Amino acid sequence: MNCPKETEDILLDIIYMATLRIQAEAKNGNAHRCGVEAYHIHNLPNILKNYSEDKVLYYYQFEIRSFVTSSEGINIGSFQPLWTKLAALIELKKFDPASKISADPQTDNSPA
């Protein structure tokens, strides 16, 4: 299944934003922060290449939370509008009976 254009645009914007942030932190010599930023986006290219709604849901439910925790909630505002757009897409799919996104926590939502 191909990644829907709306989702692709959001994920690419997240990757772009994180890349800029990694670049800025590298210039500041903050290797730890570069790692936090890179870990946040490391599965997004796989979602774009091998799209599944479960992978998007996993990113939204678990990887964003992990990033916020690793960031201690500091300096995450630049991602908020993108995460809000992604949440809106996920919510729309929940109400679509043809949607393949599973809200069941027992479903394997791993981004493998």
Instruction: Compute the number of structural domains.
Output: 1
| Overall outline | globular
Average pLDDT over all residues: 86
Low-confidence stretches: 100-112
**Largest beta-sheet details:** none
Distance between the termini: 15 Å
| Rg calculated over all Cα atoms | 14 Å
Oligomer: single chain
Order of helices and strands: HHHHH
Helix share bin: 55-70%
Structural class: mainly alpha
**Beta-strand content:** under 5%
How many separate helices? 5
Number of strands: 0
Structural commentary:
- This protein is an all-alpha fold.
- It has one domain (5-93).
- It is 65% helix and 0% strand.
- It has five helices and no strands.
- It has helices spanning 5-27, 31-41, 44-49, 53-70, 80-94.
- The longest helix has 23 residues, at 5-27.
- The chain is globular.
- The relative contact order is 0.16.
- Residues 100-112 have low confidence and may be disordered.
